[in-house]
Design brief:
By secondary structure, the protein is of the alpha+beta class. The chain is built from four helices and four strands, in the order H-H-H-H-E-E-E-E.
């Protein structure tokens, strides 16, 4: 079953996807959705590892600046982040719009992960070591429909509303 079969015909989301497909014939919502789920896990892990080089091509400049700032603060304080992605419980397309040539698709991810930040002395200062918790992220990906680059970039992040 594809993404479109789960959407109400004529809903704002279904219409948004159709508008993107009119502008970008190569846009396949199922391929996008699979890629978004993989990107979500990869970006979370790269951030935890402080891997700037890995993050840079996946993020819009302002999102990168925000992630990079948080990594720098962590490093300056001698903090280490332990991170384990347990699994994706749920992922839903929330919104799809076309702004000029730019396609934007928003996905809500509900994932289970283990995350703990330790200070320089090794004490847990954020999260909980070994404890699986559920985290909801609402991420917006975008790409220029006329670009030869098929990759989408993360352009906005938000926690659960």
């Amino acid at each position: 079953d594809g993404v479109m079969s789960k959407l109400a015909p004529g809903s704002p989301l279904a219409l948004g996807i159709l508008r993107i497909q009119e502008e970008d014939r190569g846009f396949d919502p199922d391929v996008f959705f699979g890629g978004a789920k993989a990107a979500h896990e990869m970006i979370a892990q790269l951030f935890a590892q402080g891997d700037r080089k890995g993050l840079k091509p996946l993020l819009a400049d302002d999102v990168y600046a925000s992630f990079e700032g948080a990594i720098s603060v962590r490093e300056a304080a001698g903090q280490k982040m332990e991170f384990s992605f347990v699994g994706l419980k749920q992922a839903n397309l929330e919104d799809a719009t076309l702004r000029g040539r730019i396609a934007e698709v928003t996905v809500r991810f509900v994932s289970e992960l283990i995350s703990a930040t330790r200070d320089a002395a090794g004490a847990v200062i954020e999260g909980a070591a070994g404890v699986v918790r559920e985290v909801t992220d609402v991420w917006t990906f975008a790409r220029d429909t006329r670009s030869s680059d098929p990759n989408w970039k993360l352009v906005a992040t938000a926690g659960a509303a």
